[in-house]
Write a structure and sequence with these properties.
With 129 residues, the protein is of the alpha+beta class. The chain is built from five helices and five strands; from the N terminus they run E-E-H-H-E-H-H-E-E-H. Helix content is 56%, strand content 16%. The protein is flat. The longest helix is centred in the last third of the chain and has 28 residues. A hairpin with a 5-residue loop joins strand 1 and strand 2. The strands form two sheets. A three-stranded antiparallel β-sheet has the order 3-5-4. It has a two-stranded antiparallel ribbon with strand order 1-2. The model has no long low-confidence stretch (mean pLDDT 88). It has two domains: 89 residues, Arc Repressor Mutant, subunit A, CATH 1.10.10.10; 37 residues.
């Protein structure tokens, strides 16, 4: 077996090809930038022109274009040309579902941290000691 065909056990005893793990890592790498996540958030449920994306994010055209290129390369967004404008949309809404799950994950752990800080800030008497 060559290195590209190696398989490893995953949780639950399922066999997961290394290529699938690389695919997942590539997606997470593409999403590992706040600007790219912001682009996806403004594209939620709608198609926008590159100019509209730039305007909504209040960023420079070259910066946004570079991030759109990464998202296109990973096939996270798709584009279509209409005249001299390029319109972008999210290729598959599942990616937006994943971002929503990450928001819930963040909120849950933030709430746990806030509760812990609240306990730390109490006097020993307030903590029942």
């Amino acid at each position: 077996m060559n290195a590209n065909n190696r398989i490893f056990c995953s949780l639950g005893g399922r066999i997961v090809p290394d290529s699938l793990r690389r695919f997942k890592a590539d997606i997470f790498q593409a999403l590992a930038n706040p600007t790219r996540i912001a682009i996806l958030e403004v594209l939620t449920n709608r198609e926008l022109s590159a100019g509209e994306i730039i305007e909504k994010l209040a960023m420079e055209q070259t910066n946004v274009s570079q991030h759109l290129a990464v998202l296109r390369a990973r096939q996270i967004v798709i584009n279509r040309k209409a005249g001299n404008q390029v319109f972008y949309s999210v290729r598959d809404p599942l990616i937006l579902d994943m971002l929503a799950l990450m928001r819930r994950y963040f909120q849950k752990h933030l709430q746990e941290s806030l509760e812990m800080l609240d306990q730390i800030g109490k006097t020993p008497a307030e903590n029942g000691q």
